[in-house]
Amino acid sequence: MNLAELGEGLRRSRGILHKRDIAGVVAALGLPGVDGVAGTQVVVGDDCAAIADGDGYLLFAIEGLLGDFVAAQPWFAGYCAVMVNVSDVYAMGGRPMAVVDALWSRDAEHGLPLLQGMACAARAYGVPIVGGHSNARSDGEQLAVSLLGRARRLLTSFHAKPGDTLVAAIDLRGRYHDPYSFWDASTEAPSTRLRADLELLPAFAEAGLCSAAKDISMAGVLGTALMLLECSGLGAVIDPAAVPAPAGVPSARWLLSTFPSYGFLLSVSSEALPEVLHRFARRAIPAAAIGRCDASRQVRLCSAGEECLVWDFDREPLIGCGPIGKLAA
Q1: pLDDT tens digits along 11-29
Q2: CA 303, CA 240: separation in Å to the nearest integer?
Q3: Residue 1: which of 226, 252, 289 has the closest Cα?
């Protein structure tokens, strides 16, 4: 792969453009550190809002679905709305508790496949839909879903450390929903397997094997790595060729825009790395060391003797959330 072209493609990708919009929201709201419930601090910029509560944390996740996706594949959009929230909660070391949704549709008939997709995902992941808002007299279909979870010990985007290894773990037993780059390894998988695979993440947190993680989003593997590194105030050298990938998929599509149903980046110490990789292997989930974190605040791609600088956080923020107001892991 041509690293310069890959780096340029990353900067122009739709996922990165969407993520860059976050910086304006952060600035307008005066984030990332804000006072939360009962004087606790909410750290903004992660997969979920995490609020200290007793001996753990309440986790709040929300996702709004792109309008063209909802229109083209309503059942799968409904399924994804629940699935991606579940992934966000597990990415932070939590377990999902309940889902609510907000659905607008032209009429009940057009809203039905979205509801059916949500219900199917709720059954698959074992998380109940407990309420929400509906409007069946709108001018089109729109969907947003929110999920409540709880963590005993957090994985965050703010706790990667220099010297940690970046690990990518992706379930490759799936397929694309063309023309979209959603890699579906969920809808045809046994529910028991889906839940057990996700349980690896809170188990890592509770065993102290990892303290920093993020689920791979529409920004792809490389864009997600940028967000994690920015929040931790770090840089890294990443080998894109080391990322687990299915045969026959172009590197640019896989690395820059693919949104896997099960895909996580973890920042792991050298001592914990063998056990983390072993646990993924035991679940038949491909996982590999793809890079190393450092204090440079620059992200470089390096493969086959070539190297390319793709981001310098000292010169250019991405989502505008830096390493402040960290929650205790």
Answers
A1: 998 888 888 887 788 778 7
A2: 7
A3: 252
Residue 60 in contact with residue 150, Cβ under 8 Å?
Answer: no
Q: What is the CA radius of gyration of the chain?
A: 19
In the DSSP assignment, the letter for residue 158 is S
**Distance from C-alpha of 239 to C-alpha of 253, rounded to nearest angstrom:** 16
Residue 191, token pair as written in the block: 């529910």
Distances (CA, A) of 132 to 95, 144, 146, 299, 308: 20, 10, 9, 41, 47
Q: Are strands 94-104 and 41-43 parallel, antiparallel or unpaired?
A: unpaired
Q: Which amino acid is at 57?
A: Y
Helix (H, G, I), strand (E, B) or coil at 80: helix
Residues 125-148 pLDDT 10s: 999 999 999 999 999 999 999 999
Q: Are 239 and 167 in contact (CB under 8 A)?
A: no
Give the sign of the dihedral formed by CA 149, CA 264, CA 213, CA 301: negative
**96 C-beta neighbours (distance < 10 Å), count:** 25
Alpha carbons 20 and 293: distance in angstroms, whole number: 22
In terms of Cα–Cα distance, which of 169, 204, 155, 162 is closest to 290?
169
pTM comes to 0.93
For tokens 């690395």, the residue is 255
d(CA 298, CA 292): 12
Distance CA 156, CA 73 (A): 32
Sheet arrangement for strand 142-151:
49-53, 56-64, 142-151, 94-104, 129-135
Domains, the chain, in order of start with CATH, read 3-20+156-312 (3.90.650.10), 47-151 (3.30.1330.10)
CA distance 299 to 238: 7
Measured in residues, the chain has a length of: 329
Residue spans of alpha helices (H) in 13-107: 14-29, 67-72, 74-91
How far the first Cα of the chain sits from its last, in Å, is 37
**Per-residue tokens: 82:** 């629940």
